């Protein structure tokens, strides 16, 4: 069955390329981009299609979650094509996330949990979307996250294994066309928003099942880069809603000229190490789990700040050197 599903997803991906080429669904380089070639946009549409295939083949489970996913996928795909109003996107996110919360039972929990859950979930979806900026970063990070959820699911059983398996297949298919020097396609909003929604669903599922919030550190690498980038831009009095290239991964790729796939591998590896550490702590010494999460976030933040300052200093030195040369000339 999984082999058939894999072949099906490959076929769907190739068919999408034909459609994208015919309708000119392409991503042209702009001021936010870390690439310089025109590339197919929306290749991540296979993520939501994979979830839909799971829904149809394995018994029509989790109807509300799937409905919310399809809503966000359709709105995000239209945004890829037309650039929709931010109000439409926000309303869609609120409604889609509400369907997810209804599916996971959050609405029957204490009232004060809901505002926090809305802020974190919608914030995560947008952060994941913004982090989809270089080749390989989305498939590599998703592979780490999904493999971790799959491992935990063997012990905790918070979601059907088949859902995680088919999402892994879709990520592998997408990664083959994306995780390369010159990507054939990008995930687009339809891909990054859909996958962020699905990962949030898995995260909420395991937190509700176990009552442990510490699992949130499994999204720590993306969260730290996103939050500290916003703080940095606010400090510089920049408009955080405008396109930019100031995430750490963008500095590493654009300013230090590190290969995209290398940067993506480093991000995924760092998150994998944190996930392994969390699993070991929860298994052998759960009493220190809060401390583990705190230390992990502090280390990630310190690493982010040090690298960002190092790169900014190098940029300043390079500009000063160029200016002196121009004056001498």
The strand line-up of the biggest sheet is: 1-2
Q: What's the average pLDDT?
A: 93
Q: How many angstroms separate the termini?
A: 68 Å
SSE order, one letter for each helix or strand: HEEHHHHHHHHHHH
- Let me know the number of strands: 2
| Assembly form of the protein | single chain
Low-confidence stretches: none
Rg over CA atoms: 20 Å
Query: Pairing-aware structural class of the strands and helices?
Result: mainly alpha
Write a structural description:
The longest helix is centred in the last third of the chain and has 40 residues. Helix content is 74%, strand content 1%. Helix 2 crosses helix 8 and helix 9 packs across helix 12. The protein is globular and about 65 Å long. Strands 1-2 form a two-stranded antiparallel ribbon. The model has no long low-confidence stretch (mean pLDDT 93). The protein is mostly helical and 329 residues long. It contains twelve helices and two strands.
Distinctive features:
329 residues, 12 helices
List the helices and strands and how they pair.
Layout: H1 2-23, E1 26-27, E2 39-40, H2 45-57, H3 63-82, H4 86-104, H5 113-131, H6 137-156, H7 161-178, H8 188-210, H9 220-235, H10 248-254, H11 260-284, H12 289-328
Antiparallel strand pairs: 1-2
Summarize the structure.
Helix content is 74%, strand content 1%. With 329 residues, the chain is mostly helical.
